[in-house]
Each structure stands twice: as C-alpha cells, then as structure tokens.
Amino acid sequence: MSHDKVILVTGGSGLVGKAIEWVIENDKGRFGKMEDEKWIFLTSKDGDLRSTEATRAIFDKYKPTHVIHLAALVGGLFKNMKYKLDFLRDNLLINDNVLHTSHEHKVKKVVSCLSTCIFPDKTTYPIDETMIHDGPPHESNFGYAYAKRLIDTQNKAYYDQFGDKFTSVIPTNVFGPHDNYDLQDSHVIPGLIHKCYLAKKNGTPFVVAGSGKPLRQFIYSRDLAKLFIWVLREYDEVDPIILSVGEKDEVSIRDVADAIVNAVDFKGGYSFDTSKADGQYKKTASNEKLLKYIPDFKFTPFETAVKESAEWFIQNYDNARTGKH
Ligand code: NAP
Ligand code: GDP
Questions:
Q1: Which residues, in sequence order, are CB contacts of 209 under 8 Å at separation 6+?
Q2: Counting atoms of ligand 1 from 1, which one is nearest the CA of 17?
Q3: DSSP state, 40?
Q4: Which helix or strand (DSSP H or E) is residue 257 part of?
Q5: Is 154 helix (H, G, I), strand (E, B) or coil?
Q6: Distance 209 CA to ligand 2 centre (A)
Q7: 220 labelled catalytic
Q8: Domain NAD-dependent epimerase/dehydratase, which positions (predicted)?
C-alpha cells in the first residue's frame, strides 16, 4: 500500500515517542492514524543521530516526507547539573544532523521539541513563545537550554533561506508510561513514583529532594502526544507553540509528592531533603496561543494521569527504565 505521508519519529522509544505511538494506534477520534500515513518510530539502535552518516543512512532508508524530532539527551535537574557539556554537544549534533538531513531530503515538515526549561531565568510571567532568546537560561541546565534554543534559530534560518517548513513545540514537564524511572537521573514525577514504590515495598523512608516549594506545570505524555499530532497535521507557523496546561494548573513539588503517595497508596509520611537543589523556582508558561488554535482540547486531570503513570510503572517494574539494567 502506498502512503502519501511517511512520518519518521526520532526518539520513538522514549516517553513522548511511545505516547505518540500509543495515540496513533489507540485513538478512535481525530488523533488516531489516518489512512494516508505511515508512521516509523526510531530508537537509538536504528543509528546514533550524533553521527551525520548514520542520520543520512536512516533518511535514505525510510525517505520520510514528515519528521517529528524528539531524540535528545534528556534528564531531570540533577542529571542536567552533572553533564552540561554532554547536554550541549550531543543535542547540538543530533539537532543539526536531523534538521539538515531533513532539508537535504526535502522533508515537507519537521516538528522539533523544545522545553519550557530553556527560557530565560530572569523573566516576567507568564512566559510566552516570544521570550525564548531574551536572556540567559537557568545556570543548572544551560547546556541543554542553549542547544534547544538553537533549534528555533535554525528553523527560522531554514525558512528565510530556503522556505523550509520546520517548526517546534515547547512542552512543560512531561510524565507518563515509558518514562525514565531512574532514581538519580530522572525527572521529578518518575523519580518520586519509583522512590515511593520502594518505600512502600521495603519500609524505607520516602525522601523528596529540595524544599517542595518550586512550582511546575506538568503535561501527561498522552495529552502531549495528541497535541504533537495536531501540530504535525494542522499548525502552519515556523514560530514555536507552547504545549501546556493552564497557569491555574501549576502545582508545587509538595502537591506532586501528595498525588504520588495517593497513587501508590503509600501509608507512610515523607520528608524533604533541603540539602538538595530546588532548581528554578517556577517557569509558569501561558497556553493562550494553543487555546486560540484548539480551544476544545481536554487535558487529563493531573491526579488521573499520575495514577495511570504509577500503575504503569508498578505493572512494568521489571522492564521499565530504572537504571537497574
Ligand atoms: P526520553 O524518554 O529520554 O527518550 C529519548 C529518546 O531519544 C529515546 O528514544 C532515545 O533512544 C533517543 N535518543 C537519545 N539519544 C539518541 C541518539 N544519540 N541517537 C538516536 N536516538 C537517541 O526523552 P523524552 O522525555 O521522550 O523526550 C522527548 C523530547 O521531549 C526531547 O526532545 C526532550 O528534550 C523533550 N522534552 C521532554 C520533557 C520531559 O519532561 N521529559 C519536557 C520538555 C521537553 P533509546 O531509547 O534507544 O535510548
Ligand atoms: P526541572 O523542572 O527541569 O527542574 O526538572 P525536574 O523534573 O527534575 O524537577 C525538579 C524539581 O523537583 C526540583 O525542585 C527538585 O528539587 C524536585 N525534586 C524532588 N524530588 C526529586 C527527584 O527525586 N528527582 C528530581 N529530578 N527532582 C526532584
């Protein structure tokens, strides 16, 4: 069967890639697979995207017409603080290879992934799409942040020089099934789900890093996946778009710990280790632009999404990414 659209998803085995695959296969409404689409989900086993040769070989093999570019060196606050140069170099190389090979292959549209943690540290709130390059990012993740910001710069340059339709989305903190549940290097929700699960199983203390006061907006990976699919099919700007729940849905790290205690059905208490970093206090983002485009979009309630993620982790404990393999 021939398909008009061959959609290549880099980073297809990660948190966001797996969620897109799930929505494509399971959504019975507007976000499910369309007849003219062929979806290909890559893992790093298909080739190391830091290598130009490997990237070209992948594009020669699949001949994509569209690309969703997710592959990146990704991690939570503590991993970002440890490996700043790796975050900068790996992501610069991956992004340049994917974007330039897409250009060489005359790919019709590329949707790349930025993050709200790349915005200036000193800023006004809420943050919006126009503010990415307004000042230095937070010290804790400047390697990742500068590499990601350059995707936006590159997209504009490809458009101005060649008319290429390369765009990007800016999600807030993401969580869900297939996340990285490593105890040290993960993001806060998967890290705390794992820690709470161990506290329940082994009767050990449940310790939350930092003060519990920082504020974050979280998006469930399956909601984000639907929005990615919408962007690929319908969003026509080169400028990025923030994919986030509203400002009123921002929660503290303490709220996160409470939701996890509930989801894991942990009967003990927890403490805060204030010797550990808090990172950015907040990075409140506006989803006004998104809601103008897609006002009827329904986000999964935070507690429901945390529960589904914890259930997925417990059911898949032996195979989940936990750093134990
Ligand atoms: P993830 O779960 O860590 O997955 C990363 C993906 O990238 C995996 O499929 C991995 O392949 C692939 N990859 C990494 N290095 C690669 C390389 N050198 N060559 C080829 N593939 C490589 O990450 P995620 O959370 O899904 O993140 C997806 C995108 O969302 C990233 O661009 C990230 O910056 C962005 N984002 C994430 C968050 C968040 O909270 N997680 C928030 C905002 C934005 P293997 O599985 O084979 O290793
Ligand atoms: P960030 O939003 O980019 O800072 O990324 P994270 O998902 O790593 O969230 C970091 C926030 O959660 C900081 O305020 C941390 O102090 C707090 N936190 C509490 N416990 C943990 C944990 O086990 N892992 C991580 N990554 N952060 C934690």
A1: 78, 188, 272, 273, 276, 277
A2: 26
A3: E
A4: helix 253-264
A5: helix
A6: 7
A7: no
A8: 7-246
Q: Which residue has the tokens 């290598």?
A: 51
User: Smallest Cα–Cα separation from 231: which of 104, 134, 144, 114?
Assistant: 114
Which residues 6+ apart lie within 8 Å of 142 measured at CB? 84, 88, 136
pLDDT digits (tens, 9 = 90+) for 35-94: 999 999 999 999 999 999 999 999 999 999 999 999 999 988 889 999 999 999 999 999
C-alpha dihedral sign at 231, 235, 239, 242: negative
Task: Pick the catalytic residue from 62, 125, 144, 159.
Answer: 144
What percentage of the chain exceeds 70 in pLDDT? Answer: 99
Question: Are 99 and 238 spatial neighbours (Cβ–Cβ below 8 Å)?
Answer: no
Q: Which atom of ligand 1 is nearest to the CA of 71?
A: 7
- The single-letter DSSP state of residue 46 is G
Distance CA 212, CA 208 (A): 7
Integer Cα distance of 300 and 61 in angstroms: 37
pLDDT in tens, 199-242: 999 999 999 999 999 999 999 999 999 999 999 999 999 999 99
Q: Which residue has the tokens 């937070």?
A: 138
